[in-house]
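User: Please check token order:
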Amino acid sequence: MLLLRFFLRRASLLLALTSSLALSGCGNGFFPDMDDEELPHYTLSAQEQAWVTPYRLGEEWRFRNAAGYERRYQVRGLTDRTWPGHPAGSSMMQYYQQEVGARVERVDSAYDQRADQYKFAATMVVGAAIKFEAQPLPLMARFEWGSTALALPVAEVNSMRPLPAGVRLLPAATFGSQTYQNVLEYTNLQPRADQPLAPWVTTRLYYSREQGVVRFVEADGTVWDRA
């Protein structure tokens, strides 16, 4: 019995020692040597976060066409997250990145009564620029209006740099009875001219930093203006 207790005690000591050595070596594996508070936090500036202004939880965007029909879209979700990140090729967490976003859903009664399974949703996401020396990444901003995806030139507009191809900045634009300032015009969202599109697919879109989508045009020529 004494011999058995001796071996059990030796096994317990060896297990504790092995665990201690394993934990002390974690800094060389998947976890950083520094504390989380010491890692760089890349955040959005006030000017960059201003692009989330149009999205207020519960607010509705109303659009009308020339025939008098109305569509309603509601802001259903807002996010403000901080994500851990690491350069490509590394498994070690080395920084944090702020990302803000919003989700908009169509809510008018005519749409809710549709029998098909397609559900419209729009999403907007802006992620802070990564200034990590090993692998810097520019500010990320994207917007999806249903099946139409496009990049928001947040950095270019804020710094007054040339815009990407296919995007124009209108100093002012009047749609219906309303005038908007600094409107981004996406003139041709059709992937290929010879590619047939469903009539409801968006082929042109107008976006304001302060108001969000203010006009969009569908493949069948229907124009929807913000009411």
Observations:
- DSSP finds four helices and twelve strands in the chain.
- The first helix runs from residue 2 to 24.
